Structures are given as structure tokens and as C-alpha cells.
Amino acid sequence: MAFMLCAVIMAAVPAYAKAKKVRVYKGKSAKYVFLFIGDGMGLPQKSATEAFTGEQLTMNTFPAQGMTTTSAANRFIVGSAAAATAIASGQETNIGMLGMAPSQKHVKSIAEMAKADGKKVGIVSSVSIDHATPAAFYAHVPTRGQYYDIDVALSESNFDYFAGGGLKDITNKKKNSKNFKGNALDLIKEAGYKVVTDKETFNAIKPGDGKVIAWNAWLQDSKALPYAMDMTEKDITLPEFTAKAIEMLDNPEGFFLMVEGGKIDWACHANDAAAFIHNTVAFDNSIKEAVEFAKKHPNETLIVVTGDHECGGLTLGFAGTKYGSYFDALQPQTISFQQFSDEVVKLWKEEHKGEAGFEDFQPTITHFFGLEFEGDFKNNPLIVKDYQLAMLKDAYVRTMKGEKKFKDPELYNLYGGYDPLTVTITHVLNNNAGLGWTSYKHTGVPVATSAMGVGSSSFNGYYHNTDIAYKIMSIMGMTPKVHASINNAEFAAK
Amino acid sequence: MAFMLCAVIMAAVPAYAKAKKVRVYKGKSAKYVFLFIGDGMGLPQKSATEAFTGEQLTMNTFPAQGMTTTSAANRFIVGSAAAATAIASGQETNIGMLGMAPSQKHVKSIAEMAKADGKKVGIVSSVSIDHATPAAFYAHVPTRGQYYDIDVALSESNFDYFAGGGLKDITNKKKNSKNFKGNALDLIKEAGYKVVTDKETFNAIKPGDGKVIAWNAWLQDSKALPYAMDMTEKDITLPEFTAKAIEMLDNPEGFFLMVEGGKIDWACHANDAAAFIHNTVAFDNSIKEAVEFAKKHPNETLIVVTGDHECGGLTLGFAGTKYGSYFDALQPQTISFQQFSDEVVKLWKEEHKGEAGFEDFQPTITHFFGLEFEGDFKNNPLIVKDYQLAMLKDAYVRTMKGEKKFKDPELYNLYGGYDPLTVTITHVLNNNAGLGWTSYKHTGVPVATSAMGVGSSSFNGYYHNTDIAYKIMSIMGMTPKVHASINNAEFAAK
User: Fold this and answer.
1) What is the number of other CB atoms lying within 10 angstroms of the CB of residue B490?
2) What are the Cα distances from residue B258, in Å, to B114, B277, B468, B476?
3) Which of A73, A84, A473, B333 is least crowded, fewest Cβ atoms below 10 Å from its Cβ?
4) Partners of A255 in beta bridges
5) Contact between residue B41 and residue B47 where contact means Cβ atoms under 8 Å apart
6) Beta-carbon neighbour count of residue B364 at 10 Å?
7) What is the pLDDT of residue B7?
8) What is the CA radius of gyration of chain A?
9) Which of A21, A27, A23 is nearest to A454 (CA)?
């Protein structure tokens, strides 16, 4: 009976989540369409960013604001592949699937439809450009990990501009492709793409240069852009990739541009508030580029901003801080969890393994995160409490031993597969700032969707993520008649 | 420096939160206006309720859906008094203040304006009717704990219908009133109110009976209605109090009715998911009563539903359950945390103190919460894990010792001032269902506001809680000219 109960619950995606209420847009079609997807960006992420900066996010000033449910066909808590497929194609699908229905029948994305309509298409992401969210706009694979097949799909997309992070598996080193066609980067070049991997060349590219794929010289982790807080002026930022996209795509037939803020999610998986906040600011600054364009084309532009799901179970309140909020406590942090564990902790281990105790490492924590180890915590949220010191010491020992994967449920809850010391530091700092985390994975709370421009009022309300695709298709004037090949059944039925 | 940093942060309520964008409504005024306030009801509370029941909440079907920021004048995380003052009067104020600006100048509520306009007015709550949220509609006191003064204000309100919970301090036993006028219940009777405290009499009251104050015979805690899951058929439910309100208030001049789901908040403070879910269902069933009324008066009715703030830092994901959600694990719970600690734990302590160990108590936990102590947790979310068993045993020992208030920060994080055993049981059960909590207090994430009927589209968007009052006033046709005494400055400036 117990097992059955569990099995029943596993599949319980509420029926209401699948109800669709698409208003078919009757006005003049939008010629220029921007879709911004903040990966892992729920309402708490947006609010924490505003509270930290003291300024309203541009996306929150948009006239239309809706709430969007996110569940997948086979799981309440969605993953980025199923979420991106829903947003890109209007097709609810299973976890891990890209550009297809649960039946594996392919579905066309807004980007593919726009391209077929003669528009230019751009795809920008702060993570690898073959990662689940961008890939849902051009690839059709049953498993998001088929990076080689996705890279080949990119080469065959004929889209005009890919930019941000790199490519994860151009040589099929994962050996999970059944259809090897040669080095995917060669295929991309053969398809006519100019490949740009340094800032100087990037700055010089112009619309006449034809199809482009561009990434930053420094790809920090899994072929992604560095976290915004780790970048130097040598790096190309997400707003810069977005501004260049607009320059490259602008043409009389119009364009569709998708920009993903992909590392908001990764920072939230690791429970690092400062890292996701700085990346959310960068993401919002990318949106500002679109708003500037829209000012010049006010009656022809639609800008839609959404999140694909919340990540980390972030809340703006913590037991220990009660009703207090101390967002400024996040100001002293000058490094992402990733860079800290990849560089600082690694170097410390190499230089001091077996010799140095936690006390020796304390000044390094203070230097990069601002946490202090002496003083009265009642007067300063940066002061580490006794129980937090004990947690940090435990974590330090585990880090020095090289422990990382924890099967014990209690230890998993504490560290979630991250470097124990680094994740404990961000937990302590975030908690003292008045922020709580409950998970290292996504959560199932609805996200916010914002819109401005042509047809934007249809983004008010409370709707499932699949509706975002249908609304955009409708506002772009893309109908099943024009795209007879698509399998987007609910849309076709309208 | 440290102290200054802290002081600066304490006051940091973002400036954007105070920006107001009120659209003055130009259409036909609403004659019948409902305002439902789910205390502590953030987006996670609504989503968890939908996931548990498998049905969309009525409030989530409303055509207008907005997001509402909640901060107080002097704190990012709001309290119910400041939040209710903002929603009732459009006045942002300090924590704890009711019906007044930070300067202590009184502000008129929508309810008072409606009464002055010749409409009937009703105030319903599942907590005591002099609690912060209902009191903000008729009282003006600098401290929400002035229950006697609030009870006197109720007697002087001339509102037509008060119902739900009872009165907290009719004799000024807290001795915090500077203006004692005698027993407040006597004042209420002298003002012409019929006082109803049993279900039979309640069912029999009719519109011709004049002004009424009614509460349930069993007031569970702090003069509040019992939790929905603890009620029997002898009790009067929130939907029944709401239906009677409509019957009593319906008249050709129109009415304003505020209904608070007050114990959603209290259950969330205690981190008890089943308790808040059943109360959210009851709250939504109350909204259904208003929707039925609106169907009969489609062009004259406005229904607005909001939350005053999130509570508990609830998220729909927990580290230990990763991407899994097991909402059905909450089904076996048949008692609220309150009733369990008030009755079951109390009785056990009286009967077994010093004799019985945790193992003896296990069957009682299984009986009331469904948690099981043997089996493989991988196949059943109701199985208690080893580390959770250790937490329960620790908590059991503390409960048997009568420990409750914890100054130690680590212990406070674990128990938050609740009965250690009871709150640990709900933590374990909720976590295993895939739900996380981060706090025993409110949090600062925006809430959702839903509206249907006359002027409802103005509730789309992203706005501060004070805007709710101005929107309703505008849609009810209430202007500063009519209510020259009000100090609602921003409204007057329009």
C-alpha cells in the first residue's frame, strides 16, 4: 500500500495545470519579438534583487504582469528542458525532453516558425548555447544530455545569431549520439557561421557578416559565461551579447530573439544569493537593451520576460532573523560560490592540506564574504553565531578531506553535493541576511511573466507556461495554416 | 561601523515599494464589494493547496491577477496591522499601527467610507474580530495589542455585521487602555448589536434583526475559530459566516464585506502545512459564496482577493525530496498542530510524564499524522528517516520537560517557540511531502491579488498593497470630496 501511495503521488500533476485559456490575438502583429527567460528566476529571486539594489527591476515595471504555473507532463516540479519546450512550443512534455511531445513527435518552436516566416532569429544564453533552455528553440531530442545532437541541430537551424556560452560536446565524447556526422563545430562552420571567441572580434562584427556564433573567451563552468560577479572587463556580458543581437538581427522583416539568464538557476542550485542577484541584475540590464529598441519601434515590438521555474526554494525570511532583513550583508561578497570553490578553496587545499585548521582559513572567508568571527551578532548580521561556527568547522574538515557526494540524507540536506565549506559559507551569510533556502533543486511555485508592447495585455492573468508560446505565436501572427507541419495540437484546435 | 551597517539595513525599505500608480476608475461604480484577505497567504500557500486538492482555487480563476508588494513604512517584512491598514486605507504605516499614518493621524478605511456612503458593512474573520486585520477596517490605535480600545471602536463603528471569532479584551484586563468606558461587550449591546454565540441562533438570524455580532461557540485559541480540520458539524464555518453576511447585508444601497482567512497565517507560523491547506480551502469556499452572489449581480459586484503577506517561508520543494513532490503524504494528518499540542500532547504528559519513552508515543503520531517508523523511505514518503527519528526523540524529551521558549539560536531555528515535538512532527511530515519552511514569521516576497467583476482589470499588474485600497475606493466611486475628513494624502492628490 505504501509503495502504491508513493507511485500515485509521483504522477500527480494537477489537471487544472493543463487547462489552457489562450486568447487569440486580433490586432496588428508584432514584428520584433523578444523573449527573456530567467532560468530559476521565481518571484523570490526578483524581490531579493530589488531589495538588495533598492531599485525596481525593469521587468517589474512592464504594464502586463501574470503568474505562470510550470509543471511538466510527468512531474509537478519541472526541469529546464520540459519548461523550455513548453515556453518555446506550447507543448507540455516530459522531464528532459526537448522540442517534442511525450510521444516523441517533434513540435516546432516560435523561433523555427519565425525563421520560416522570413524573420531573423537570435538565441543568447549565459550558459552553453546547447543547454536545455536555448536548445528547446532549435533542437528535438528525447534527452537533454544529447549535446552532440543538439550541436548538430544548431548547425542545421539556419538561425542568424547564437551567442553567450559555448558548445558542450562537438565531438560526441559522451558517445550518446546515434548519428555522428563529424565535428559539430566544423558542421557549424560549413553551414556558413562565423565563429567568434574573443571580445575584440566580437565587438567588430556587423550585420553584413552573416550568420554568427559567438562566445566569451573565458567559459567558467560547463562552457558557461562567468558569473556576473566574477567577470572582468575582458569578458563579454549578457547585456553586451543582447545589444549585439539587436544590432545583428534588426531588419525590415523583423526578428525573434530569445535571451536566457541561465546562471541565475545555477547560483540558486548552490544557494548563493549574491551570485544570483548579480546575475539577475545583468539579466535585467539585458532587458533594458530590448526596452531601448522598443522605444524606437513602439508599435511593432513585443517584449516578454518569464522564469522557467523557481530554484533553491528561496524565501525572503529566515527563522533566526525573525522579522529582520539585512540585504546589505550580501554587499561584502565579491566572488561566486563557483569561483571560490574552484580557485580559492582548491588553492588552499593544495597549499595547506593537513597543516592548517579552520581558524587559519577564517581571514579568507572574511576577505571574500565579509563574515566576521568576533563581535556581538545582535548588532551585526555579518557576525558568525556559535552554532554556525560549528557548522563551518564541520564543513571545513569535510572539504579538506575532499568529501562532496553525500548519500546520508542529513548530510545531503546540509551540502547538497556542493563543496561543503563553500555552501555552508553562503548558507550562513544568506541566513544572516534574512534569506532562507529549502532545496538544491527547482521548486513548484508559480513564476511571474511580464510583458510590454504589442499584444502585451494578454500576458496578464494566471496561466500555464505553455500559454506563453501560444500568446506569442498569436501576437506574431503565426497560425497553424502557415505552419502546417506543427504538432502543437491545442493551438491548432483554436 | 558594524552597528551602523545594521541600523542602516534595518530601515531599508526600498523606495520603489512606495511608488504608487493608481489608475482612477472612470466606469460605473460597484455597488457590492467583497474584499477577501488571506492572512499569511502567499503564492506558495495557494499553489500547495491546489497541488494537494488537485483543483484550481476559485480565486485563481479570476480574470484579473496581480502581484502585490507588502513592505511596511519602517520594515521590509510587514506585519498584519501595517498590512491591513495599507489594504484598508491606502496608508503605508509602521509595524503594529492600525488605521493611522506613522504620524498617528487617523486614516479612514474603505469600510468606514462605505458606511458613510450609506452602504451596509460587514467584517468577518476566522480569528478574533478585534485582531489586527479586521480591526484595521474600524479602529485607529497606535498598537494592535490595544484590544479593549479596539473592542470599544467596534461598538462605535455602526457597521452592520461582525462575525467569526470573538473579542479578546472586553474588560481591559491587559490594562493598556487609557480610556476605560466599561465592559466593551456591554457597550456593543448598548449600541444595538444582537450578540450571537451559538449555531442555532446564528442560523436563525435574518436581515430584519438589525446589527449583529456573532461568533462560534468553540473558540479554539486566542478567541479564534477552530482550524478547519478540527471543526465538527457543531461549528460555524468561514463559508457559513460569509453566506450569512451576504444575506444580512444585501440591500439596494449596496454593501462592503471584508472576510479574513486569519488562521492560514497562524498555521504557517507553526509550519503546519495540512492546517493551512484546509484553512485555505475554507477561505476559497467563502470566496465561492461571493462568486454566487456576483452571478446574480454581474454588473454591480467587485470581488477582490489578496494576501497580506507570506508566512513561514514556505516553498514547494525540499532538499531531501529533490525534484519529488508527495502532497498526498499530507492526507493522513487529521488534526492541527494546535489541537495536537493543546489536547493530545497535554494529555499524554499528564498521564505518562516520567514513565513513557518516545517509542510509546510513536503510535499516537502515526494515528494523527500518518508518519510510520518502519519501512523503506525510498518507497513511502511517510516513513521517518533515521536523522528525523533522532530529531523527534530530542524534541520529545524537550516536550516532556515542558521546554518551549528557546533563546539559543540553533534551538530557536528548530522549534521557534512552539511545542518542540509537535513542530518537529509537522516539519518531518511536510519535508517528506516535498515542502520546505524557512521561518516562523512572515516573509517579504510579493503576494498575489485576484479580482473579478466591476473594474477588476485594474488589479492586473505589479503594485504595492496600498494601491489595493485606492483601486477599490476608485471603483466604489468614493472620492476625497465625499470624505473630506480623510488623510489618505496620495488619494486626495489624484
Assistant:
1) 16
2) 12, 21, 13, 14
3) A73
4) A32, A120
5) no
6) 14
7) 36
8) 23
9) A27
Contact between A490 and A19 (Cβ < 8 Å): no
Q: How far apart are CA B41 and CA A60, in angstroms?
A: 21
- A180-218 pLDDT tens trace: 999 999 999 999 999 999 999 999 999 999 999 999 999
Distance CA B468, CA B463 (A): 8
Sign of torsion over alpha carbons A57, A58, A59, A64: positive
- A375 interaction partners in chain B (CB closer than 8 Å): 2
The residue whose grid cell reads 528542458 is A81
CA distance B237 to A451: 40
**Strand B447-453, strand B161-164: pairing:** unpaired
Cβ–Cβ of A65/B60 closer than 8 Å?
A: no
Task: Specify whether the CB–CB gap between A92 and A134 falls below 8 A.
Answer: no
Q: What is the pLDDT of residue A440?
A: 98
What is the ipTM, given to two decimal places? 0.93
B332 and A CB contact within 8 Å = no
What residues 46-75 of chain A have any CB closer than 8 A to a CB of chain B? Answer: 47, 50-51, 54-56, 60-67, 69, 75
**Bridge partners of B307?**
B38
Question: Global pTM?
Answer: 0.94
Separation CA B84–CA B69 (nearest Å)? 13
pLDDT of residue A491: 39
pLDDT in tens, B174-192: 999 999 999 999 999 999 9
* 3-state DSSP of A413-450: HHHCCCCHHHHHHHHHHHHHHCCECCCCCEECCCEEEE
To the nearest 10°, report the CA torsion of B272, B278, B284, B290.
Answer: -130
Are the C-beta atoms of residues A348 and A284 closer than 8 Å to each other?
A: no
Using an 8 Å CB-CB cutoff, list chain B residues near A314.
315
Chain A neighbors of B3, CB-CB under 8 A: 379-380
- What is the structure's pLDDT at B385? 97
CA gyration radius, chain B: 23
Q: Which residues are bridge partners to B163 per DSSP?
A: B124, B214
Strands B310-311 and B442-443: antiparallel
Read off the pLDDT of each residue in A219-237 and give the average, rounded to a whole number: 98
Q: What nine digits make up the cell of A224?
A: 558557461
Q: What is the pLDDT of residue A25?
A: 81
State the Cα–Cα distance between residues A376 and A72, nearest whole angstrom.
47
> What does the pLDDT look like over A123-143, one tens digit per residue?
999 999 999 999 999 999 999
Closest listed residue to residue A379, CA positions, set B441, B8, B408, B76: B8
CB-based contact, A397 to chain B, within 8 Å:
no
pLDDT-derived band at A482 (thresholds 50, 70, 90) equals very low
Q: Among residues of chain B, what percentage have pLDDT more than 90? A: 89
A-proximal residues of B, 454-473, CB under 8 Å: 457, 460-462
Residue B353 has pLDDT above 80, yes or no: no
Reading phi first (left if > 0) and then psi (alpha if -120 to 50, else beta), residue A137 is in alpha
pLDDT in tens, A208-224: 999 999 999 999 999 99
Amino acid at B260: E
**CA distance, residue A414 to nearest chain B CA (Å):** 9
Which of B310, B146, B164 minimizes the C-alpha distance to B235? B164
Is pLDDT of A437 > 90?
Answer: yes
Burial code of B457-483, b = ≥16 C-beta within 10 A, e = fewer?
Answer: bbbbbbbbbbbbbbbbbbbbebbbeeb
- Closest by CA to B61, choosing from B74, B78, B76, B46, is B46
Of A51, A380, A440, nearest to B319 by CB-CB distance is: A440
- Confidence (pLDDT) at B355: 85
On whether the CB atoms of residues B349 and B400 are closer than 8 A, the answer is: yes
Residue appearing with cell numbers 546589505: A328
